Amino acid sequence: MPTTLPTAGREWHLVARPTGWPTDANFALRTAPVSEPGAGEILVRNRYLSVDPYMRGRMNAGRSYIAPFELDEPMLGDALGEVVASRAEGFAVGDLVTHHQGWREFATLPAADAVPVPRDLDVPDTAFLGVLGMTGLTAYVGMKDIARVREGDVVFVSGAAGAVGGPAGQMARLLGASRVIGSAGGPEKTRLLTEEFGFDAAVDYKAAPVGEQLAKAAPEGIDVYFDNVGGDHLEAALDALNVFGRVAVCGLISSYNATEPAPGPRNLGLVLGRRLRVEGYLVTDHQERREEFLRQTAEWLRAGQLRYRETVCEGIERATEAFLAMMRGGNVGKMLVSLEG
Amino acid sequence: MPTTLPTAGREWHLVARPTGWPTDANFALRTAPVSEPGAGEILVRNRYLSVDPYMRGRMNAGRSYIAPFELDEPMLGDALGEVVASRAEGFAVGDLVTHHQGWREFATLPAADAVPVPRDLDVPDTAFLGVLGMTGLTAYVGMKDIARVREGDVVFVSGAAGAVGGPAGQMARLLGASRVIGSAGGPEKTRLLTEEFGFDAAVDYKAAPVGEQLAKAAPEGIDVYFDNVGGDHLEAALDALNVFGRVAVCGLISSYNATEPAPGPRNLGLVLGRRLRVEGYLVTDHQERREEFLRQTAEWLRAGQLRYRETVCEGIERATEAFLAMMRGGNVGKMLVSLEG
């Protein structure tokens, strides 16, 4: 083992649970010792951290689908890094891995918790934190297994310029949808949807009510709504859904920083007469789809049929800033924090 | 053909579309000519009419899952009657049939639209308008195909003293549920649930908030909610649902007479973290299950494993009164109108 191993590194701690929108006062960047890997462990120098909307939920205390972040402990999240020391079979210094010990410069972890990055797919490494990582798998599972998109479906995706929504809309088309409509905030993002991602129409939720725009974009109604947003997007989608329509509830970013629960859509009763199915899912329950997803998605990428964007913030000290910017829609595609600088 | 065939009969017409709760002013009982059956038709003397919550939706104009009642035309609905004239093969005078030309004393209809009542099941005829008819099939399909009740599930059924809810809760148990909880209004009905229908616990929604009572009745949460009501019942059920819980949306009686759409439940976001599935359905889409349902349900009835109740109003002139009483919860079990008197 080389003698240049790091003995300390910086890591983000949650120091106070936020109410409503988090602020700088909720977080602290601290330096902590780096432990040497024990038997079966690896030490990873993180190159990129992933910041994602679901992390807001982990900042709250109490019952949720995922354990809350502990106070005064490193926050967790997906990261891509390089093995700098290994006491695990099959992992060598220099290997690239993804893992879930993010929000820090160095992580010592059981090799069993790391996923080697395939080197034969001819895609940029950062794709494994995005379109070939958790967010891409989320899009794939949501369209294929939850919404069960079919030949000829008209599909509406909210948050379509984001890390999940962009791939979700394109995958819908690749899986047979006849028309794909996306929503995003502002003309730059909506242009991206129609001009680069191949959406048939885009709804700018900042420009006019979603319902009005969606009715124009889908005069025959929609068959699938892939929800990243909730709120008025969900209400508009319910109005537009055709009989036997399906809603894959992937995210509800409009509510994550609310201090009071908002009432649900006034038109939820349409679920009955139109025989709608509204289903929530978490990608963590669908890891068995990962292999198929990787193979299929890499193929789409190589064929130029699937495009994605990244927004990269430089420096671990900007990680919470990147997280908050992403929550406010300041990203295009996957929001990443680079530790390469 | 006997010479005593009726030449006129009474029938209920919708004469004005109701706003909110219907009143006598919305309906008229009129006498109309009875036409002789043509080739392939039968003439039926109705013995029992079925009044059901979904009929309220048909009184409205405009887009719905089912065509609205026409003004100044006979309203439609399930009925049980005796063939008094037949020009159709396989139908003889005296045969009992069910059909959908209700709200009238006599109906001339294509034999293809009539369903012969099986005589070998050893159950009262009226069962074919209830537990062995549309409402029973609704319960069966909802539990088996939509909620997909499994061994060990804890199941909550609203409107459980009604024509659908009573069978639904008992079928859940017969299909493997470990604990069944029902809601109803008032002590007479809740006692019926626990003492006669075999529910493990009952919630009296008139006595205290549903959520409080449900939390006590299902301290470990519920896995299935069979919804006949909507509103605060749905909100309470969402709070109680365990991960991978399912909601079969069968009816939303709390909203049928509302003049303004009510906001949806404040806790709809639980759909995501708990990976819930909320699915609406209509029995009309599931007629292919009828044969299996009849065989299975008749078996349960014969074995004394499934119980049901009926509330019978006497006289066609009381049909709208029976409908409104049913909408207000004035029935126990299936609400029927007898024309036998």
From TrEMBL, chains A, B:
Record-linked CDD domains: PGDH
GO-annotated molecular function: oxidoreductase activity, acting on the CH-CH group of donors, NAD or NADP as acceptor
Boundaries of every Enoyl reductase (ER) domain copy: 23-337
Protein source organism: Streptomyces triticirhizae
Annotated keywords: Oxidoreductase
Pfam families: ADH_N_2, ADH_zinc_N
Protein name: NADP-dependent oxidoreductase
Residues spanning the signal sequence: none
Family matches, as SMART domains: PKS_ER (SM00829)
